[in-house]
Amino acid sequence: MKQRDFGRTGWRVGEIGFGAWAIGGSWGDVSEDDAVATLHAALDSGVTFLDTADVYGDGRSERLIARVLKERGGAERPVVATKAGRRLQPHAADGYTLENLEAFVDRSLGNLEVETLDLVQLHCPPTEVYDRPEVFGAMERLVEKGKIRFHGVSVERVDEALGAIRQPGVASVQIIYNLFRQRPADDFFPAARAAGTAMIVRVPLASGLLTGRIDRSTQFASDDHRNFNRHGEAFDVGETFSGVPFEAALEAVEALRPLVPEGSGGMAAFALRWILMEDAVSVVIPGGRRADQARGNAAAGDLAPLPAETMAAAREIYGRIVAPHVHARW
Asked: Does pTM top 0.90 for this prediction?
């Protein structure tokens, strides 16, 4: 797999990583055996960056990663990024204290069975946090204590991403960027490049819509966020189908389908390759619930660069069908 620099950290990581939300929870039932097989398949396919969070399955995702890395023994260890903050009840800016963050980090250290966490990201904190330097100072303190190597932020909106990179010590920003959420390339990526900030792209397949396999008849389990968060009932609606109304998203998928090159591995691979055309991206983190999904996603980096006319056509579809619903909001 092709490697990319991960900002100022000195790491080089495979450009396609693995997002471990689905194997933790909120995506329907995923057995432990399937989760373990999916992680092994991703790592066997050249993935060197795993992204998780302490709230994915209340720590299940982190513990599964620890199990798989232990099973692999002497194999080269991937970078493991986790997140902290969403365990706060209520989830409010005043809760982002050194005491609380250290407690969350200590819990993740135990779940992942390591002495130092590679990267800890504030997990989509309230917007006020970006104007509180003491929060980022707390993360620096955890670096000084040797509990984390680097810290970053996972954000919902472009303005939050711009606020994050103004804070000293922020090594990475994780943001939604895909064929349905194109604004970051215009408003944020140039600033991230200039700052030397690593860029982690999440929700690259718009919660599965950009696989091209979801239609009006698709049913989602009661514990799948694509069912229970369709309108933002549980968390930011932008995390589910990238915030695009379902009918409009399906219309956009059909408009995009003719752009998928023959023999390319399908729409999912095309959608991932489209993201990788942006050199500001350090790693894209598609998820998966099955081993074949992990292998297919990892192979997307082998596709040839997309021609300029394809990129322009994708931009036109976004502007015509999708942008009115999402561009100004996130």
From this structure: yes
